[in-house]
Amino acid sequence: MANRGLALQTRANWLTDITLFLSGLIAAVSGIYFLFLPTGGYRGGRNPYYGITILFDRHTWEDWHTWTGVAMIVVAALHVLIHWRWVVAMTKKTLSVLRGAGALSAGAKFNIAINTLVAISFTLTAASGLYFFFTGKTGAPFLFDSTTWDLIHTWAFVALVGAVAVHLAIHWRWITNVTGRLFGGGWQPTRVKLVNAETQA
């Protein structure tokens, strides 16, 4: 039988990624709930969905959305730290290309574009989410009013979901390969390391 052991760094990458994915999935599902049910108030009978329960009550959905969002921010920071060498290397290489020195493959350019979109949309989603976390639903204006923050949060979230879907598709082979090896054998850490497409220049 082939050795199914994985490098400890690869295992750490996988655990970080799966935690980020699961927290993001719950935050996304709860975000979709609020996208279609933006208000829970009775509003004098103008809200036909007042009191509706979809799996959980509205308060529970709010808790799921809030705390999985916080978890995403923490794990995403760890994710960036793990891949910091790649971030620095690709930033330098991209700047060199923009200055006319060197070149990037079409695949590398597309990967950078998607990762940049993920980073920007995630940052906007996180920043607007933290605004509501610290100020409440009708918090005091900070840079923008609460309506603008809500629009930023909503559409940055939509962009993030789309960008992450493409990101997963790009790295799907790595995901299935590592997951299969991780659960296909016992704990056998080795020096053999699967190459994550993210680490390729």
Output the CATH topology.
Fumarate Reductase Cytochrome B subunit
User: From the coordinates shown, what is the CATH architecture?
Assistant: Up-down Bundle
Uncertain parts: 186-201
Q: Give me the secondary-structure category.
A: mainly alpha
| Average pLDDT for all residues | 82
What is the count of helical runs? 6
CATH class: Mainly Alpha
- Count the strands? 0
Total of domains:
1
Global geometry = globular
The percentage helix is 55-70%
Helices and strands, in order, run as HHHHHH
Strand content: under 5%
Q: Sheet bearing the most strands, described?
A: none
Distance linking N and C termini = 33 Å
- What is the CA-based Rg, rounded? 20 Å
Give me a quick take on this structure.
By secondary structure, the protein is mainly alpha-helical. 68% of the residues lie in helices and 0% in strands.
Kindly describe this structure.
This protein is mainly α and 201 residues long. It has a single domain, classed as Up-down Bundle (Fumarate Reductase Cytochrome B subunit). It contains six helices and no strands. The protein is globular, with a radius of gyration of 20 Å. It starts with 7 loop residues before the first helix and ends in a 17-residue tail after the last helix. The model is unreliable at 186-201 (pLDDT under 50).
What layout of secondary structure does this protein have?
Elements: H1 8-36, H2 58-82, H3 84-98, H4 106-135, H5 146-170, H6 172-184
Helix pairs in contact: 1-2, 2-4, 4-5
